[in-house]
């Protein structure tokens, strides 16, 4: 298997994974297999994605074809892929499992579209070029697994737009623009925990990754690249979730303390010094204005939303860790939402695991 991206590109390059496109080899053994044309198309799609979405992807790009060991792949076909810079991953799994590791299928003819569900597909064109069918479910008939084929000349930019539509998500771009770590900025919550003698967030560590990575170097070596990529993305998402979580909780604590303190002081002063009633009213009004301003700042910067989203991403990666160790299928295609998109693209950039 040719795979220069096995070491987990996220750990080396930061948050952004390489622009990776993975194709399913869905050509029956008896069918003619032109690999050179789809190989060049896959490579062009990966480059088009990196050029169109620099905020979501890094370079170098990755193009890969996943092949079931039940499908015959000739030496010449494999050589055509590798000559075009396309990695070849042969999995000891049925084609249906391999499809869960791919973005697009390669078929021999239009009849082959019936064998790949509603996946987008590349197929040979009459002039020696490649045709592209975007697939998708039938918009009218629910019992049909695929919309009526409408293949058109394969345009790498259009294919990239279809396969990587989630790359334009504002939340995904914001995640990639985050620093490696983010401080709480406010320490009211940590102070409250110390006063209560409660453990802080940093006191809890997930040692499951160390155990998983150990298995990834031994019995589950085929899942090692995926585990390293998932662990690197998890560390980043977890760190950001902790930072924003502390910031949001500190905001709530500070608001509550300020509100209670203002109310108590105003009550005491108003009872002891009735002549200062207007002054206490002014203080309460100023406090209310400060709380509203603080709320607006928090909503504008999405502190709570980022905390929840980054925590959801981190926890979803733990689930994928279990799938990789168990040899189960990864995130189902198509991914829904930027969280699924981020984890799926991280996995596509490294070698797939076997069942």
Write a compact overview of the structure shown.
This protein is an alpha/beta fold and 355 residues long. It is built from 12 helices and 7 strands. The longest helix is centred in the last third of the chain and has 49 residues.
Beta content: 5-15%
- Look at the structure and give the mean pLDDT: 83
Largest sheet: 7 strands, mixed
| Strand line-up of the largest beta sheet | 3-2-1-4-5-6-7
| Helix content bin | 40-55%
Global outline:
elongated
Structural class: alpha/beta
Number of helices: 12
Residue windows where pLDDT falls under 50 for at least 5 positions: 1-13
Q: How many individual β-strands?
A: 7
Distance between the termini: 17 Å
The run of helices and strands is: HEHEHEHEEEEHHHHHHHH
Radius of gyration: 26 Å
Describe what this molecule looks like in 3D.
The protein is of the alpha/beta class and 355 residues long. 50% of the residues lie in helices and 10% in strands. It has twelve helices and seven strands. The two termini are 17 Å apart.
Keywords:
seven-stranded mixed β-sheet; elongated; 50% helix; alpha/beta; 355 residues
Write the layout of secondary structure elements.
Blueprint: H1 9-13, E1 18-25, H2 36-52, E2 58-68, H3 75-83, E3 87-91, H4 95-99, E4 104-106, E5 121-124, E6 130-133, E7 152-153, H5 156-163, H6 170-177, H7 188-196, H8 208-216, H9 224-272, H10 277-300, H11 303-326, H12 337-348
Parallel strand pairs: 1-2, 1-4, 2-3, 4-5
Antiparallel strand pairs: 5-6, 6-7
Helix pairs in contact: 2-3, 2-5, 7-9, 8-9, 9-10, 9-11, 11-12
């Amino acid at each position: 298997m040719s795979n220069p991206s096995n070491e987990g590109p996220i750990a080396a390059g930061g948050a952004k994974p390489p622009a990776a496109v993975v194709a399913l080899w869905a050509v029956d053994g008896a069918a003619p297999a032109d690999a050179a044309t789809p190989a060049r198309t896959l490579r062009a799609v990966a480059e088009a994605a990196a050029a169109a979405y620099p905020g979501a992807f890094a370079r170098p790009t990755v193009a890969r074809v996943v092949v079931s060991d039940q499908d015959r792949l000739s030496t010449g076909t494999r050589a055509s892929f590798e000559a075009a810079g396309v990695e070849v991953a042969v999995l000891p799994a049925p084609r249906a499992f391999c499809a869960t590791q791919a973005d697009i299928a390669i078929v021999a003819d239009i009849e082959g579209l019936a064998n790949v569900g509603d996946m987008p597909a590349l197929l040979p064109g009459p002039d020696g070029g490649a045709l592209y069918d975007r697939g998708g479910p039938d918009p009218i008939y629910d019992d049909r697994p695929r919309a009526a084929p409408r293949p058109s000349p394969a345009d790498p930019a259009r294919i990239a737009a279809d396969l990587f539509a989630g790359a334009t998500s504002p939340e995904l771009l914001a995640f990639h623009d985050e620093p490696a770590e983010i401080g709480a900025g406010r320490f009211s919550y940590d102070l409250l925990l110390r006063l209560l003698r409660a453990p802080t967030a940093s006191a809890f560590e997930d040692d499951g990754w160390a155990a998983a990575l150990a298995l990834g170097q031994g019995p589950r070596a085929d899942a090692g690249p995926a585990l390293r990529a998932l662990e690197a993305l998890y560390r980043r998402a977890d760190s950001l979730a902790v930072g924003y979580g502390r910031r949001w909780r500190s905001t709530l604590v500070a608001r509550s303390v300020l509100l209670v303190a203002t109310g108590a002081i105003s009550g005491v002063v108003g009872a002891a010094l009735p002549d200062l009633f207007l002054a206490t009213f002014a203080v309460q009004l100023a406090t209310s204005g400060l709380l509203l301003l603080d709320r607006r700042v928090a909503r504008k910067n999405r502190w709570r939303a980022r905390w929840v989203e980054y925590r959801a991403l981190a926890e979803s990666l733990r689930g994928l860790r279990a799938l990789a160790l168990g040899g189960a299928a990864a995130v189902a295609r198509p991914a829904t939402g930027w969280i699924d998109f981020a984890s799926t693209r991280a996995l596509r950039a490294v070698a797939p695991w076997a069942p």
